[in-house]
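Project standup — Tuesday

K.O.: blocked on the structure for the chain from last sprint. Re-posting the sequence here as requested.
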Amino acid sequence: MDFFFKYMPVEECLPIILVGFSIVFLILLFLVIFFALLGKIVTAFNKGGKDGGNDKKKTDTKSVASTSSSNTSSTMSDGISDEVIAVIAAAVAAMSAADGKKYAVRSIKRTSRTNERPVWAMAGLHENTAAF
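H.V.: unblocked you, prediction finished:
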């Protein structure tokens, strides 16, 4: 340490250190603000694109209630029991009541698993990597 202070006294080092720390702090602050705003812009852009295309998909929940059980089992039963269909319809109705929006179940299909991760792992990955 004596080697460094032979060529530059401590009085001259402190302002340089303070200026360096200030510049680094301000740049980091700028980056945090920039990425926060970018995340909000992207989120607003994505919400605007999704809402514009979903006007046709918004329907009354009456269509769920008015669907007869024979029609439901014939159109939706591709290997899915009636109890599972009832639980899915009840979950959609509960979500509809909580959001204040109206949703309807049009069809229920099994999906083929194309990726190796379970659905819950993908949901957690999406939640943890979404824009803040």
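K.O.: great, moving the ticket to review. Residues 10-53 form the longest helix (44 residues). The mean pLDDT is 75.
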